[in-house]
Amino acid sequence: MLALINLFFFINIFFLTCNQHGCLAQRRHIFIYSGCSQERYQPNTPYETNLNSLLSSIVASSSQTLYNLFAFGNSTGEPPDSAVYGLYQCRGDLKPKDCSTCISSLISQIALLCPYTSGASLQLDGCFVRYEETDFLGRLDDSLRYKKCSAGGGGDRDFLRRRDGVLAGLQGEATSAGFGVSAAGAVEGYAQCLGDLAAADCAACLGEAVVEVKSLCGTAAAGDVFLAQCYVRYWESGYYDDSSSSDSTNQDNVGRTVAIIVGVVVGVAVLIILLSFCKNTLCK
């Protein structure tokens, strides 16, 4: 019983600490969006074996390089097919050590979010993983996956001029280097293309992302647009507030899942304590 009380105390301290300090050291692990395919695979099949090999390879590779792609199994074109294709990418300003930590955190969440699905994608603040049963590698896909706009907005000409300048700078830098950072006064931003895109496709994807973020976020002081193979993010210093963001295309939140799990654990612990108390005192 003492151990359960200690567990309850530890969980409360953990969440209080995160609330007070924002768990700033873990920002690269912040959940952004996820997607799961409708198709599912059966356990103990060649597809599951190949998928596990792919995920293991992603974890191992992430300690060496910020991007890589893989293919396991043979595609026959007829179901059931055992082939699986996947890639990962970390934010361009991360070191391999930080990339590896982010990827490991991400991989541990996939089974929870997309159990036994043949395809999945998961974007954290600092890293991204996608796998499918069909070969998507290197094929341009600029479909919208996620958007977020800050509730506050400046909208004055100076802000819009600076924002547009930042977005233009991001397009040029990220097209040539795959990852770009830009700033103009108080407005900052960064953008990235997936490593499997050719320069021309990267430019096209980023161009579409810029159009989308201007259209969807208007004069908002901060905006994020994630397409399938690239993303653009900008913000004005002092205005970006995650808690006040408005209108997201994906309401999934790993934090909710974790809270539910913790709630169940705490509930069971409290129930056991009450039953033990009843047995030792009231029920005698």
From TrEMBL:
Q: Which Pfam families match?
A: Stress-antifung
The Gnk2-homologous domain is annotated at 29-136, 141-239
Subcellular location as annotated = Cell junction, Plasmodesma; Cell membrane
The UniProt entry lists membrane topology as: Single-pass type I membrane protein
Keyword Cytoplasm among record annotations: no
Q: Which family does it belong to?
A: Belongs to the cysteine-rich repeat secretory protein family. Plasmodesmata-located proteins (PDLD) subfamily.
Name of this chain's protein: Gnk2-homologous domain-containing protein
State the organism named in the record. Answer: Castilleja foliolosa
